[in-house]
Amino acid sequence: PLCKVQKLNLGRGKIGWISFKYEKLPNFCYWWGSLFHDDKDCETWLSNKFSLPIESQEYSAWLRAP
């Protein structure tokens, strides 16, 4: 899966977080974060007979860079 956030050591005991955004995600599964299939081909989506709410996706549009 694509990395969403990463912990960053800022030194002197300080920790920060960096979030990632990606450009050009042609085939992307928002359920698994996979580049190898998209939402409509996802086994999770298909096995649940298309009944999973979009809100339960692990990834969403915030992952795409503007």
Automatic annotation (TrEMBL):
Domain Zinc knuckle CX2CX4HX4C: residue ranges: 1-43
InterPro entries found in the cross-reference section: Zn_knuckle_CX2CX4HX4C
Pfam families: zf-CCHC_4
Protein name: Zinc knuckle CX2CX4HX4C domain-containing protein
Organism: Lithocarpus litseifolius
